[in-house]
Amino acid sequence: MAETAARALGVVGDDRTARLPGAWRLGLLRGAMEIRMFFRLREQVVFTFAFPIVFLFLFASIFHDDMADTGSTASQYYVASMTAAGIMSTSFQSLGISIAIERDDKVLRRLRGTPMPPAAYFLGKIWLVLATGLMETAALLVFGAAVYDVDLPSGLGGWLTLGWIFVLGITGCALLGIAISSVPKSGKSATSVVVLPFLVLQFISGVYILIDTVPNWMLTVGALFPLKWMCQGLRGVFLPDAAAALEPAGSWEYGRIALVLGAWCIGGLVLCLLTFRWKSRNDG
């Protein structure tokens, strides 16, 4: 079975003496397979892309008033915040649950028994996260621009800012998702273990509640995690400069955002190396 799985990924062929492809190529092949498998599950695809748009519509419909002296509306605020939440959903939540289920179903154990380098498995997951994250972000921005008149960046600087926030944010959240996948005792409990902290983070990071109305102690806790900083950075990209007055520091703090998200990329990698397991706890 291990040989069959390896051959399916292109790791081995009929000539067993042939040189094995490298981890980068296998990671790309694995990523393509992960993306195909994702789109074969239509219910999962609909939920992944429709969930943040539905929540954006609900919150923007309920809180649609102008934000005083900022030149923007609450609806536009939620476009930025829900985009950040969507990035974390396709990375942290998606990987935390899917990897835990694959471990419980012994998929990881079988893959570990093939000649495929371990790095190829994680590269495949990264390609999946990048593809789904980009598509969900694009869908939210198109919806926000069409329905709520959100101004997309007009210059290269704005798009570059969006780009590095996206890359650092999705990388840190993906690594955190891989790390938390080792916490559930079984695949059945993975959803509860992963979704609950993500839901709490959304409330204390200014996703569902305007940042100037969140209690200070909640903001302090939220500031320890990447979601709060992604929200703040994306508000800086899509909202007028006057809206920075609503932030706790009165500015977008791009330098601090880059520092925190970069620290989570490094810290998340360390957590993955320390906690990741190929076998479930029941396997010993």
Structural write-up:
One of its GO terms (cellular component) is plasma membrane. It comes from Actinacidiphila bryophytorum. It is a multi-pass membrane protein. The chain crosses the membrane at residues 45-64, 76-101, 122-147, 159-180, 192-211, 257-276. This protein is an all-alpha fold. The protein has one domain (2-12, 20-283). It has eleven helices and two strands, in the order H-H-H-E-E-H-H-H-H-H-H-H-H. A two-stranded antiparallel sheet has the order 1-2. The longest helix has 31 residues, at 74-104. The two termini are 21 Å apart.
Task: Using the alpha-carbon principal axes, give the shape.
Answer: elongated
Q: Encode the helix/strand succession as letters.
A: HHHEEHHHHHHHH
Cα gyration radius (Å): 20 Å
Termini Cα gap:
21 Å
Uncertain segments of ≥5 residues (pLDDT<50)? 1-6, 8-17
Work out the number of β strands.
Answer: 2
Q: Averaged pLDDT, please?
A: 86
Largest sheet: 2 strands, antiparallel
Q: Structural class of the secondary elements?
A: mainly alpha
Strand order of the largest sheet: 1-2
Strand content: under 5%
Quickly count the helices.
11
Helix content: 55-70%
Number of domains: 1
Oligomer: single chain
Family: Belongs to the ABC-2 integral membrane protein family.
Domain ABC transmembrane type-2: 43-279
Keywords: Cell membrane, Membrane, Transmembrane, Transmembrane helix, Transport
Subcellular location: Cell membrane; Membrane
